[in-house]
Design goal:
This protein is of the alpha/beta class. It contains five helices and six strands; from the N terminus they run βαβαβββαααβ.
Length: about 140
């Protein structure tokens, strides 16, 4: 199960123990958490194997049983960011079916960035590329153990 953790909402404590992938914004703060480090510790304590914290245009932090690191996000001049988070999560759900966790995050960030280059939540799809792929240098700090 994938959780889209934008902001903490009552009831998350009931579903988080069943979560495989927690993709949270930097604004997601469970009770007693005051930093992204606190959030990661909280989620790890629940046994969630794959955790990512997004930071808007800054790199995505990720943690998994196979390692931890960051994924750079594309640098763009956004026209409209409406729906970018939902597009990111939908793209992630598509890519995680065939790619390792950090690469799925990178691919999803490319799709979300593409969506921000157009006005509205659907116009970008008409101009999208048939395959979006991050450069290998966008994945840093990932170590397979």
């Amino acid at each position: 199960m994938v959780i889209d953790g934008g902001h903490w909402k009552p009831g998350f404590e009931l579903v988080l123990p069943y979560t495989d992938y927690a993709i949270c914004s930097n604004d997601f703060m469970p009770p007693s958490c005051h930093s992204s480090g606190d959030v990661v510790a909280y989620l790890k304590n629940l046994g969630i194997p794959h955790i990512a914290i997004t930071h808007g245009s800054d790199p995505i932090e990720f943690y998994s049983n196979n390692g931890a690191g960051t994924v750079d996000v594309p640098t763009i001049q956004p026209i409209d960011t409406l729906g970018a988070g939902d597009i990111f999560h939908g793209a992630f759900c598509h890519f995680i079916l065939r790619l390792p966790f950090p690469q799925a995050l990178a691919e999803a960030s490319e799709v979300a960035a593409q969506s921000c280059r157009s006005f509205g939540t659907r116009q970008w799809m008409a101009a999208r590329q048939t395959h979006l792929s991050p450069s290998p240098s966008s994945l840093t700090g990932f170590a397979v153990t």
